[in-house]
Every structure is written in C-alpha cells, then in structure tokens.
Design brief:
The complex is a heterodimer of chains A (137) and B (98).
Chain A: E1 3-10, H1 19-29, E2 42-49, H2 63-67, H3 72-81, E3 85-89, H4 90-95, E4 116-119, H5 121-130, E5 133-136
Parallel strand pairs in A: 1-2, 1-5, 2-3, 3-4
Chain B: E1 2-7, H1 16-19, E2 24-29, H2 35-38, E3 40-41, E4 44-45, E5 54-58, H3 59-64, E6 76-79, H4 81-90, E7 94-97
The chains are: A alpha/beta (137), B alpha/beta (98).
Chain lengths: 137, 98
C-alpha cells in the first residue's frame, strides 16, 4: 500500500500554449487511475501556479464566449470539484499587481468544498519537497 | 513604410521589434500579447509601451483572459476583430507577426 504524490507546477500563462490546461486535465485525470492500481495504492495530485502561471487563475475568463473553448478558470473549478489542492504564489501575484479578489477562488456553484490557496513561495517549495514526482508545465 | 506589428507573446525571446523603424508603426497586442497592455510588473508598465508607435489591444483576447478593458494602459486603444480588419486594410501597408 502506497500513495504516490504528483505535483503539477504551472509556470506559463494561459491559452498561447496547451501547457497549463494539460497540467489541469492531467491532474484531474489522476482521479480515475484507481482502476489500474493495486488495492490500497493511491495517486494524489496537487497543482501550484507560479511565475506567469498565476495568470491562469484570473477570474471571469470569456474563452467560451469568444473562441468556444472551455476557459482555464473553469478547468480550475473542475479541479477543485475533484478535491485537488491548488496553490497560487502570493509574491508572483503581487508582482503583477493582482490580488486574491482577481482570482477564481472556489467552485461553490458546483458544490466543491476545496478552495484555491494563495500562499508564499516558501510554502509551495515545501509542498514540492513532499511530492514523489514534479511535472512542470 | 506603414507597418502593423502583431505581438502575441508576453515574454519576448527575439529583439526584432527593437530593430524595426518604419515611417509609421502600429503595435497590435493579440493573444498573450495583451498582457503588455494591462500588467504592471512591480508597478512598471511593459517596456513595449515606451516605443514610438500606435498601440492596439484586441478586446476578444483581453476578455478571454479575464482582463477588463478598464485595466488597459491609456496608451493602448482597445479594438474588436472587425476594427482590426479595418485597421489592416486602411491604415497600414504591411503586417508582421513576431
């Protein structure tokens, strides 16, 4: 019996590349791998947004209205719905003149209990050390 | 030469824009280029906005990223895709995408 912890680190802004969305969809997909694991084994996924990656968390994205794409903030809400921990680097957010008020922080409308956590980079760094595997996007 | 330059990245890896010196230049911020119009890293607007040019940012790409037009720097005019087409046909002779 073992738990494998995956840490997805998103460091690029949304939309120009698929990278941030791949991080989110892969993290969400970890919820469905149980069928391939031995009984008692688990895989967990946590996501951290750092650097330009914090821009993914901006609320009120209208990608569906203009381009027919599921917006990145909706993917973040889906990740919260499946109980994935999400951290956003406080220093990088402040560097861009943004605050928590500018971010998608919860998915209450979908019944999610989890919320996005804005934390100092030192805390994200500690979490990264706890992970078995780190995947950078 | 009247040149319209599309800037579609926030982090620029080439210095081509610095080397261009047309008689008239329009810098059109699209895709992730729209962050130049809105973000002030450590309180400082993007250095692109210091260039001698007319600046435009695409409304659709701003709002796709959750950026309100009220966040846009006063040097930059917000335009729609339709207005962009008019701009390309009426105001500039050539376009470049960097």
């Amino acid at each position: 019996m073992a738990t494998t912890k995956l840490g997805f680190i998103v460091q690029r802004p949304p939309y120009k590349s698929e990278n941030p969305k791949l991080a989110l969809t892969h993290a969400i997909a970890t919820q469905s791998v149980e069928v391939y694991l031995n009984e008692g084994d688990m895989v967990t996924a946590d996501i951290a947004f750092i650097g330009d990656g914090v821009l993914n968390c901006k609320k009120d994205q209208k990608a569906m209205d203009y381009y027919g794409l599921t917006s990145t903030d909706q993917h973040i809400k889906m990740a919260l719905l499946v109980d994935i921990n999400i951290w956003v680097c406080k220093e990088d957010l402040e560097k861009f003149g943004l605050s928590e008020d500018d971010l998608v922080l919860d998915a209450e409308e979908f019944g999610a209990d989890m919320t996005v956590n804005v934390v100092p980079y030192s805390e994200i760094s500690k979490k990264m050390e706890e992970m078995n595997h780190l995947l950078f996007f | 030469m009247k040149l319209a330059v599309f800037v579609s990245d926030y982090r620029m890896t080439v210095d081509t824009l610095d080397r261009l010196s047309p008689e008239k230049m329009g810098i059109i911020l699209v895709q992730n280029g729209v962050y130049h119009a809105t973000l002030k890293e450590n309180g400082t607007p993007s250095s692109i906005l210091n260039k001698s040019a007319e600046f435009y940012a695409l409304k659709e790409d701003l709002e796709t990223r959750g950026l309100d037009t009220s966040m846009v720097d006063s040097k930059v005019k917000v335009i729609t895709l339709g207005e962009l087409v008019d701009l390309m046909f009426n105001d500039y002779e050539k376009t470049a995408w960097i």
